[in-house]
Design a protein that fits this description.
Layout: E1 14-20, H1 27-39, E2 44-49, H2 63-73, E3 79-82, H3 84-88, H4 93-103, E4 108-114, H5 115-120, H6 127-133, E5 136-139, H7 152-156, H8 170-173, E6 178-181, H9 190-194
Parallel strand pairs: 1-2, 1-4, 2-3, 4-5, 5-6
């Protein structure tokens, strides 16, 4: 499924948005998506395969190839693969969030990211608006580098952190809010796979 169809996003659904270049997708990505689905008690995880990443210098593989690879990796029917960013011409996460929240006001969206993403969130366009719009589920990853729980974005969200034991309430609680989920760490990272 390429886009987010209105009939699949009915009010009340708890939908995790898992964006990335997935260049290439790997078992670590699958681990993050499965962890979020289970621990947040989501109805769906939407894998948002982006056309590119403005914070990365290297050009990703063609979008169609990455979409096919994610389809082969995604673990089941509650995982939906989308290229909506390319379809909308949304170059930044904030553009996508504005669109989705305007079109689907009753859907309880949660942004899913690996811990390394939290560490650089302050570099994203309009990152303060992002954290004001959507709660964040941050999944520990072996490739996170310095502890992202002490990053600039984490400090801005400090008073809105939901304990891991209450993670399933994140979608209902809304923004600003975040939780940090620890599961057995998965060692894969796209940059290591590219060589």
């Amino acid at each position: 499924m390429a886009g987010l169809k209105s009939d699949t996003l009915t009010p009340g659904l708890r939908v995790g948005l898992y964006g990335g270049s997935f260049n290439p997708p790997h078992e670590g990505h699958r681990h993050v998506a499965q962890t979020a689905l289970k621990r947040l008690q989501l109805d769906r995880v939407w894998w948002l395969v982006s056309p590119g990443n403005p914070l990365k210098d290297d050009a990703p593989a063609p979008l169609d190839a990455r979409m096919d690879a994610v389809r082969r990796l995604a673990p089941g029917p509650r995982h939906v693969i989308s290229s909506i960013e390319a379809q909308l011409g949304a170059g930044y996460t904030i553009d996508l969030l504005r669109h989705l929240q305007a079109r689907h006001p009753g859907v309880r969206f949660v942004w899913i990211m690996g811990a390394d993403g939290l560490g650089e969130l302050h570099r994203w366009k309009d990152w303060r608006e992002i954290i004001a719009r959507i709660p964040l589920a941050v999944i520990a990853r072996a490739s996170a580098g310095p502890d992202p729980r002490f990053s600039r974005a984490a400090k801005a969200l400090r008073q809105h952190r939901l304990p891991e034991s209450q993670a399933r309430a994140l979608a209902d609680r809304g923004a600003p809010g975040w939780t940090y989920l620890t599961e057995p760490l998965h060692p894969h990272a796209s940059r290591l796979m590219r060589g």
